[in-house]
Amino acid sequence: MKLGNEISADHLTDDELSALAVPPTGAPEPLPAHLSACLTCSRLLAEWKSALFALGGEDQEVIAHRPAEDWRAAEDATLAAIRRAGAPGRGRARTLKWALPAAAALLLFGLLIGERRAAAPVAFDDTAGLSAEDRADDALLRDVDRLASGQEAGSGWSALAPDPATVEPAPAGEKRS
Amino acid sequence: MKLLAAALLFASVATTATALPDLPEGKWWKRPRIAAEINLTPDQESRIESIFSRARPTLIDLKANLEKKQGELQDALDDANADRRAVAGRVEAVENARAELQKARVMMVLDMKQVLKPEQWDRLVRMHQEFRRERLGRFLERRRPPGQRPR
């Protein structure tokens, strides 16, 4: 199905959902009419958007969970590496001016990467084993999550603004309140 | 040394501004793999289920109320004659309804959190973050042209 306002009986493909959640041009894509009629696709799009929405804070959360010992170890390792390089002379002092924060940044990056590799993802969306009642509850909770956090599909001002193609121009001189 | 301290301080300050914990979606306590991963006991599962059962009617009502208010706002936006004050009032009603729903949801999750041991909760939140990151990776992979995707 093409992006645009044509109605399609086909569900949106992953590529189409991807393009809607992260518009390749950087500008929002027009929402396909299929989305307003299809709960499945609308839910899928909301899930992708939700993942993107939450991504911003993730690295910060990972760093926030670092214990104090890790921070101390990072600092000690950095200072030890600097000491191994020898006593700083005049020229070396200038080099260290930028080398210190650079080394700290590299160490932090290394800790982050290590953290990411440590934990294997577990499927959170596996609803296969749930009873019909549990599945209905599951859907309710997901809807509540999305609605409460304002991430529901079609939310926001872009969804509220009428599609310019379907709006007739207002007559000249119409009073605006 | 000052620069190093400043770099570390910046990193720690920037990261303590985390808001609400990342809450797991759906009926996670009913998923065997998650339950196994955090060592959820049958008693804990039963208590969490009770918390949800008590909250369910409220969540259903508040969700319906929010959707109703959203519908009313949409009607006002679709109405060419709607005045600004009416629209503003409906926007406020939507946001109030959303806040009520959010409050009920957070209170429910807070009660659930009390049932879990801190390490179980931490593991649950971490797992959720990993899952989202992995899902986003798959998602972004889809955005690459087919020829550039790894096989």
Helix content of chain B: over 70%
Q: Which stretches of chain B are poorly predicted, pLDDT < 50 over at least 5 residues?
A: 1-19
Report the total helices of chain A. 7
Overall geometric form of chain A = elongated
Question: Got a strand count of chain A?
Answer: 0
Distance between the termini of chain B: 47 Å
What structural category characterises the helix and strand content of chain B?
mainly alpha
| Largest interface: pair, residues per side | A-B, 63 and 61 residues
Order of helices and strands of chain B: HHHHH
- Low-confidence runs of chain A (pLDDT<50, min 5 residues)? 1-7, 117-122, 153-177
Overall mean pLDDT of chain A stands at 62
What structural class is derived from the secondary structure elements of chain A? Answer: mainly alpha
Radius of gyration of chain A: 26 Å
In one word, what is the shape of chain B?
A: flat
The oligomeric state is heterodimer
Major sheet characteristics of chain B: none
Number of strands of chain B: 0
Radius of gyration of chain B: 22 Å
Mean pLDDT of chain B comes to 82
Characterise this structure:
- The complex is a heterodimer of chains A (177) and B (151).
- Chain A has 7 helices and no strands.
- Chain A has helices at residues 14-21, 33-37, 39-64, 68-84, 90-118, 132-148, 157-160.
- The longest helix of chain A has 29 residues, at 90-118.
- Chain A starts with 13 loop residues before the first helix and ends in a 17-residue tail after the last helix.
- Helices cover 76% and strands 0% of the residues of chain B.
- Chain B is built from 5 helices and no strands.
- Chain B has helices spanning 2-16, 32-37, 42-78, 84-115, 118-142.
- Chain B is flat, with a radius of gyration of 22 Å.
- In chain B, 25% of the residues are buried.
- Mean pLDDT of chain B is 82; it is low at 1-19.
- At the A-B interface, helix 1, helix 3, helix 4, helix 5 and helix 6 of A face helix 1, helix 2, helix 3, helix 4 and helix 5 of B.
